Amino acid sequence: MIILGITGTIGAGKGTIVDYLVKNKNFKHYSVRNYIIEEIKKRNMPVNRDSMVVVANDLRTKNSPSFIIDKLYEKAEKSNNNCIIESIRTPGEVLSLRKKDNFFLIAVDADPELRYQRIKLRKSETDNISFETFVENEKREMNSDNQNNQNLKKCIEMADIVIKNNGTRKDLYDEINKKCADILN
């Protein structure tokens, strides 16, 4: 069983990579976002990026820096399939998964203006924001000294594979196949 984690900046293409691996490489998908949204709804909070950050940080603070990822890994392990866990956001999550066999971390990034255009197109509940808010959100999630808070910069630095996604979907798929050939075959 292979466990892939995926990290990256907002709108960089994490979901597109997940969709590709699920459809073309038979990976099973486990989503941090969906896990947090379920918890937000239990708490009767609005589903938006601010609530997602507050709830995720609260779960990590009350339990452990890798709590959410550990819960998703438990589900993945029971499936006995190759799995992808989306979206790794703290170094503690990476360190917890590094203790597992056959874990690899993929990071994806793209230019900010392109990523903003992508989030406007996907129209999720957390994406109806101005470019200025987009930049502020990313700045908040990029660095933190608190082990329970998002630190995308550090997670990207910890990745086994880094993909720059400034091209087409086909370019992205080709890059996945090239950079992940040893893992996927």
Structure, explained:
The chain is an alpha/beta fold. It has a single domain (3-184), classed as Rossmann fold (3-Layer(aba) Sandwich). Helix content is 55%, strand content 14%. It has ten helices and five strands. The chain has a five-stranded parallel beta sheet with strand order 2-3-1-4-5, sandwiched between helices. α2 crosses α3.
Task: Explain the layout of strands and helices.
Elements: E1 3-8, H1 14-25, E2 28-31, H2 32-42, H3 49-62, H4 67-79, E3 83-86, H5 91-98, E4 103-109, H6 112-122, H7 131-142, H8 152-157, E5 161-164, H9 169-179, H10 181-184
Parallel strand pairs: 1-3, 1-4, 2-3, 4-5
Helix pairs in contact: 2-3
CATH homologous superfamily designation: P-loop containing nucleotide triphosphate hydrolases
Could you name the CATH topology? Rossmann fold
Structural class: alpha/beta
Label the CATH architecture: 3-Layer(aba) Sandwich
**Overall pLDDT, averaged?**
92
The amount of helix comes to 55-70%
DSSP summary: helix tally: 10
Order of helices and strands: EHEHHHEHEHHHEHH
Biggest pleated-sheet summary: 5 strands, parallel
Query: Can you tell me the CATH class?
Result: Alpha Beta
Instruction: Order the strands across the largest sheet as they lie in space.
Output: 2-3-1-4-5
Separation of the first and last Cα atoms: 12 Å
Q: Got a strand count?
A: 5
**Overall tally of structural domains:** 1
Rg is 16 Å
Low-confidence stretches: none
- Strand-residue fraction? 5-15%
